[in-house]
Write a structure and sequence with these properties.
The protein has 72 residues and is an all-alpha fold. 90% of the residues lie in helices and 0% in strands. Keywords: Membrane, Transmembrane, Transmembrane helix.
Length: 72
C-alpha cells in the first residue's frame, strides 16, 4: 500500500505542476495579466501613457498632413 500512496502523491504533484504550467501559458490568462499590469501602470502614473498617446497622435497627424500636402 505504501507504493500506491507514493504513486498517488506523485500523480497529485504532477497534476498541480501541469495546472501551474497551463496557467502560465494560457493565452487568455497571459493577456489578462498583461492588461492588468498596463491598467495598474496607468493608474499609478498616467503621464507616460498620455505622452505616448500624444506622440502617436502627432505621428498620425503628421502622416496625414504629409500625404495631403506632400503631393503638391
Amino acid at each position: 500500500m505504501t507504493e500506491q500512496r507514493e504513486i498517488d502523491r506523485q500523480r497529485e504533484q504532477l497534476r498541480q505542476h501541469l495546472n501551474e504550467i497551463e496557467d502560465r501559458v494560457n493565452p487568455k490568462k497571459v493577456a489578462d495579466r498583461v492588461v492588468g499590469r498596463a491598467q495598474d501602470s496607468y493608474n499609478e502614473d498616467p503621464t507616460p501613457w498620455i505622452a505616448a498617446a500624444a506622440g502617436v497622435a502627432v505621428l498620425i497627424v503628421g502622416g496625414i498632413a504629409l500625404a495631403i500636402f506632400g503631393r503638391r
